[in-house]
Amino acid sequence: MKTKEKKEKALIGTGLITAAAASLCCITPFLALVAGGSVLTANLTWLESLRPYLIAFTLFVLAFAWYQKLKAANKNSPECACDTEVKESFWQSKKFLSIVSVVAVLLLSVPYFSSYLYSGKKSESVEISPDNLKIIHLKIKGMTCPACNFEVNNAAFKVDGVNSAETDYKNGSTIIQFDNSKTNKHEIINSINKNTAYTVIKQEKQ
């Protein structure tokens, strides 16, 4: 029984870990906001490319765990013959597996409600003389969810002189206004490439 319980715990733990890993790309920008840094974000957002595989693996693990649980609960199963008199612990119960399943689904759903975590969190605009105002349109590779918008904007605002940044992960682009007497497009592009896991691939014609 102890061996079986350890296997079940390992299976459930694996499901939670992969569910969390699948959404780190959207969780870490929020953690970076709270911590006031972006190193953690840049180090973990490489997991974005693995998200589809992590989701599939999480769902497989949870489905297998439920299959094992329902199979063991079947009175006609030979496996139950020796376990009927043994009281099941909370960690082996359907209740615990249900809690884990709900938590895993919530973690996997983070990208769909992550934008609410960052609502209202914008850097203050700076006044720019019309003669110094410049606008660049950049194409960015690697963005997959609303949290990516915040991460790119945050990286742009790290550059002194940036007035606004509007990023759209759906079409992989950002529009940035800046004061060319204080900075230039190269510094902004370098900041995005350095402080995020994404890559500026080109500047679009205005």
Would you mind describing this structure in some detail?
This protein is α+β, with helices and mostly antiparallel strands and about 210 residues long. The chain folds into 2 domains: about 1-115; about 120-205, Alpha-Beta Plaits, CATH 3.30.70. Helices cover about 50% and strands about 15% of the residues. It is built from 8 helices and 4 strands, in the order H-H-H-H-H-H-E-H-E-E-H-E. It has helices at about 1-20, 25-35, 40-45, 50-75, 95-110, 110-115, 145-155, 185-195, and strands spanning about 135-140, 160-170, 175-180, 200-205. It has a 4-stranded antiparallel beta sheet. Helix 1 (about 1-20) runs antiparallel to helix 4. The longest helix has 23 residues, at about 50-75. It is rod-shaped and about 75 Å long. It starts with a helix and ends with a strand. The model has no long low-confidence stretch (mean pLDDT about 75).
Summarize this structure briefly:
The chain contains eight helices and four strands, in the order ααααααβαββαβ. By secondary structure, the chain is an alpha+beta fold. The longest helix has 23 residues, at 51-73.
